[in-house]
Amino acid sequence: MDGVGVRSKLLFNSTHMLSVAEAIGAGDGVVDSRSLQNRLGLGQSAVQRILVALEGVGLMERLERQARTEPILFQRIPHPFWVAAQELARA
């Protein structure tokens, strides 16, 4: 486990929370699970679990899909958490 993973585990009890939050914070604000999986080299269940947790605390909002075949998109909600996550990941 790298330094980011250790900090993430200590702070959030999740090895991947900081790396996922850093990627979301650095992006354009709209993400889907598959793109994060590919970018970070993580499994679907790990990324989806984090997205749902972030949605549950009001940091992400699920966007409506036009068709069931489209990926589920999440919109980042502006919050100081995103800057903090980037700083913690780089500490």
Under CATH, the topology can be stated as: Arc Repressor Mutant, subunit A
**CATH architecture field:** Orthogonal Bundle
- The shape is globular
Instruction: List segments where confidence is low: pLDDT < 50 over at least 5 consecutive residues.
Output: none
Order of helix and strand elements from N to C terminus: HHEHHEEH
The N- to C-terminal Cα distance equals 15 Å
Would you count the extended β strands for me?
Answer: 3
Q: What this model shows, in words?
A:
It is a single chain. The protein has a single domain (3-90), classed as Orthogonal Bundle (Arc Repressor Mutant, subunit A). The protein is mostly helical. It has a 3-stranded antiparallel sheet with strand order 1-3-2. The mean pLDDT is 92. It has 5 helices and 3 strands, in the order H-H-E-H-H-E-E-H.
Give a concise summary:
This protein is mainly alpha-helical and 91 residues long.
